[in-house]
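Predict the 3D structure for this chain.
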Amino acid sequence: MFVVGKPSELALQLLAQFPDSDAIYDAMDDFPAFYQGISRRSMERRQEQLVRRVSRVLVSSTALHDKLKGMTGDLELARNACDIQSLAPFESLDLGVKQQVLGYVGTIGQWFDWDLVIALARANPGNQVRLIGPLFTTMPGALPENIELCPEHAHADAIAAMAAFSVGLIPFKLSRLTASVDPIKYYEYRALGLPVISTRFGEMAHRGQEPGVWVVDQGADLRQTAQEALACRSDLSSIQQFRQDNLWGTRFSATQLLRKARSAPTLSDLQSQ
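Done. Predicted structure below.
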């Protein structure tokens, strides 16, 4: 069995060498969106060849499902999840008032919505906006005094830093690149009991009615949004349920991929016959 995580010439050549093999494409991003011009068209061509060659395709977002459904009949939506092993035991979480910090952990790249973050900081001058992660984009001049930039943390330290937030932020621009994203940080924030303020991109566009989630559009009242999110409290039972529902094991146990694998005869089954 081959499982391909990104379209590439290597993947296509390997599949050509083993034409009878079972193969799965696990599409986690709109990979052509990372490129421009000829490179984008080349990646689109590779992806279409890959989709038509494999026997099954898993996609991590609704937009990817809509994009690829015309290319294959065996397509399944399997959203992201979180690694519970890396999180603090839910019984040890501090669900009190804490420091009233609005926080973000992750890469600050071209998709990062600086305008929204600055507007949020200005609308809530009494709250600190803490941004943790590597900076791969130009900052738009001087930042409000209540925005704190912190360097990239190791994963365990990043999770600990998240747990100290009062609200988790996912401030991504709306673009083709983010339209197909189901951010893992959403699962990490909620698994730590954090309310979430997000822009309306990718899978987050479908979560506006979920408990503890505020999806903001242009012109939203960022003062009111922040105050509502800061006042939101999660209880341990709901955190435990969220973690159970969004384990990687739970996610993939629900897919046809594993159901088919479990129903297939094993070598010992065949030998017993």
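The chain has two domains: 2-78+255-272, 84-240.
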